Amino acid sequence: MRKQKLLVGPKIMLSSRLNGTIFYAYQVCPREAWFYYHRLNPSQEHDLLLLGRLVHEGSYQRARKEVFVDQLLKIDLFRDEMVAEVKKSSRHKEAARLQLAFYLYYLKHEKGLAMSGVLLFPKERKTEKLELTPELEQKVEELLLEMLPVLESESPPPPVKSKYCRTCSFQEVCWG
Ligand code: SF4
Fold first, then answer.
1. CATH of the domain at 149
2. pTM (predicted TM-score)
């Protein structure tokens, strides 16, 4: 498995496998993030993944264009060249905020691009702008330092029952 290391931020070496999906998943459940990091994917036809894809494909099409960065970030450029992240609901809004902050952080430190972000929740007709403040940057760094050893570990963190398990695509793996 290819493990190219990238440098982001002053001290953080980032595995090229740590993409935006994994960063987001870690905020919801570290075990789920570990599964994604180790390329264990749930069925592509899981209902929620399907819904997520439909929301992503069907919304804001005229205003968006999708850009891949280092095969790591799949970002949407939105009106006024903001980095957008589209979510099917605001249920995990804080995780979505941090994922978007991770994108902005990566673009700033790895690419020298200072950009603003926007979260889009098309089903709820909500948008929320995001700036990469020093506090948010520090939070991203803390999370990266915390999550990298967990993700690189040989075995996944133990399952922890939460309200998210009911709709998680790995529930059969954890609790089946
Ligand atoms: S079923 Fe629960 S414990 Fe297992 S990966 Fe999903 S959220 Fe995490």
1. 3.90.320.10
2. 0.78
